[in-house]
Amino acid sequence: MLNFILRRLALIVPTVIGISLCAFFFVRVLPGDPILAMAGQHGVTPERYEILREQFGYNLPIWQQYLDYLGNVLQGNFGVSLSTKRPVLTEFMALFPATIELALVAMLFAVAVGIPAGIFAAVKRGSWFDQFTMGVALTGYSMPIFWWGLLLIIFFSGYLGWTPVSGRISLTFFLRPITGFMLVDTLLYGNWPAFVSALRHLILPAIVLGTIPLAVIARQTRSAMLEVLGEDYVRTARAKGLSPRRVVNVHALRNALIPVVTTIGLQVGLLLGGAILTETIFSWPGIGKWMIDSISKRDYVVVQSGLLLIALIVMAVNLLVDVLYAVINPRIRVK
Amino acid sequence: MKLMKSLFAATAIVALAAGAAQGKQLVYCSEASPAHFDPGPLTGGNDFDATSHAIYNRLVEFVPGGTEVAPALAESWEISEDGLEITFKLRPGVKWHTTPYFTPTRDFNAEDVVFSFERQWKEDSVWYNYLEGMTWDYFQGMDMPKYLKEIVAVDDLTVKFVLTEPNAPMIANLAMDFASIVSKEYADKLEADGNLAAFSTQPVGTGPFMFVDYQLDTVIRYQAFADYWDGKQPIDDLVFAITTDPSVRAQRLLAGECDIMPYPAPADIAQLQNDPNLTVMEQEGLNIGYMSYNVTEPPFDNVNVRKALTMAIDKAAIIEAVYQGAGQDAKNLIPPTMWSYNDAIPADEYNPEEAKRLLEEAGVTDLTTDLWAMPVSRPYNPNAQRVAELIQSDWAAVGVNANIVSYEWTEYRERGKQEDRKGPFQIGWTGDNGDPDNFFATLFSCSAIGVSNYSMWCNDEFEALIQEAKTTSDQEKRAELYTKAQEIFKAEEPAMTLAHSRVFMPMKKTVLNYKMSPLGNHSFKGVDIQE
Questions:
Q1: Bridge partner list, B76
Q2: Which pLDDT tens digit goes with each residue over B78-120?
Q3: Does residue B226 sit in helix, strand or coil?
Q4: CA B258 → CA A195, B44, B507, distances in Å?
Q5: Which residues contact B18 (CB under 8 A, 6 or more apart)?
Q6: A171–B257: do the CB atoms touch at under 8 Å?
Q7: Fewer CB in 10 Å around end: N or C, chain A?
Q8: Which residues of chain A make contact with B44, given a CB cutoff of 8 A?
Q9: Is the ipTM above a cut-off of 0.90?
Q10: Are B60 and B77 contacting, i.e. CB atoms less than 8 angstroms apart?
Q11: In chain A, positions 15-74, which contact chain B (CB-CB < 8 Å)?
């Protein structure tokens, strides 16, 4: 097992270098000059422009800029934001819990609804429930996030007034972050109404962000279940006279879950991508919105380091999924 | 241990907040996060709303809802006869905010004023570059280094600004956000602590509201300053709830999550106006959207060609289609709310037949030109691409073929400045200080070529008038000079002036005494909320 983990860790090194190269060069290929973007409507004098170029090292050959950057990153220095002048890592750490909290709740929603829906659809194959669920899943999968989010806000918050429009917690609560996870922090403060408010604020964004993963998980569970339900050992189990519930839950589900777990792992990357739009609609103070704002401000440093940090997180999650996969299915370890 | 400390501190804050929650709270759904809290180097309107208008004061300030300048931290000022010295008498007894991170030992004085400007000006000051890669954009942009010779603290309550040449807009410049007065004592403390960066994250001012807390990209909290020199504010707490999407801001206002919001999406305005609990205030913006002809490039070097091209454009149709009721035809460079506006200038005529004739007379046939469209939406031009398409079709009707070109925003402006730029260039301006000089000299003086004079237009007569107006202190005389300058501008047509936009500000009916600023900033000084 240790060998397996070490092998997977070794693979991360070239991936990180590849991603840092992409992040660094893609950002520089974008049109627009970060110094001019910083300067605003009055512009900046040519002398000051040269001084700033030198200060940021933009006058150096590009390969040298990259090596300097990589050297700094290896020492844990991800640079300072061009617009806010704060260290990128500080901003990332302040905003990341909000994204993780949203992504976790969205994933929980997707799994909690998607897996049972997939199982039922498979067991009742061809029934109206199956067709209905798969129809809804297909619709969910094709839903543009931005439109879906606004629609839910207008209906549930605007028309019915059931959920808050945006933000993480009602403004009447003033709690300084401890962990950055609002649900955890409100509990640490022992403030029950604040916890309820934080939960209410999570409902719509989590549904919006969780819709596509839910659809994918439901469809994947259904097809995996169908495959497993046709296997000989399931027939044997049925022949033994086990209850249908036991056949599905004990014999079929565990095997059907293997591809589903992989799918869930892959969804994490997509979830972070979806978070960018969801956070923008719901004014959710996470890294997605932070990245979008930084791209429009041509904040090179935030964009390249932000991309790298997100990539590292996604890789870590994938590694975790691989390990989990190996635990569920010992054959993977041997290969 | 750290967790215990955090919990303890947090409990104290909760207790504090619980107490404060009984007071009046105003929630403003702001459009973006401030970069930080030191107004000197900042440039964005949202930055200034969160800093200079809430936390700080200036020597002089624009009157609420106007562009006239009134005393603030300076009680009065005198300009010497030669116009080279401005002496300010400072207001006594002005207190600095007492916060958990700084306790002032003295009142505001002349030292603070000198420090506030010298940190932006003297490169040997440790504060000149206290944040990595910072620029003092407005201090430079308003040409302060050119006009300032020295700033002298005559005594504790007297400050003298010595100028290199007379400069009438200087007083208006000093009312601008970058000229906010910061605490020298606080700066010295941070310097001694080796923690300069805190100056931008833990602000200390003299303004109506004290900074309490900022959660990145989420919320800014302020508390009314009890010892404010102009009296404590009617509200107790001011909250900026950062909400970037305009439609979501509107939904939050409709749902009662905020009391007031800026910049609604045009599509939402009707719904907001129809809501019985809301009021939508509106005002002319202090801005201009225009299209610069490059007067050094044929055939645009011929004034009749420029006039013909303007005449071929159906401005009314563009304003209707693009500004959606939030635009007003611009016949001059400055908006009608600004003093010296020349109302005698006739509006641009739409006459394709006459345009065709003028072009033929000038020998221009089969003209093909680039037509520049900004890639971004700005208050003065919400959709330059659409404007370009409409102009393209108007010009096609008089035999002019236009190719629309656009680049990323900073790249766009850089290319636009190049003296050999081909084709008319859409751009615009939002006024900084309500002084006409801020439009005429910034956008069309000879020295602005290569900077912000996108027409490359340098007209001796116009230049003489605006330079004279700059050095004249008598406002009536200045207005006369600018009125004349507008006549020359119209006769020469270096640019087609398209529109001034209207600005909307929706709020709950319970919000009292809010005044819209023509300068586009959002200040909650004096605002009350009905309970």
A1: B89
A2: 999 999 999 999 999 999 999 999 999 999 999 999 999 999 9
A3: coil
A4: 21, 22, 8
A5: none
A6: yes
A7: C
A8: 40
A9: no
A10: yes
A11: 30-33, 35-45, 48, 52, 55-56
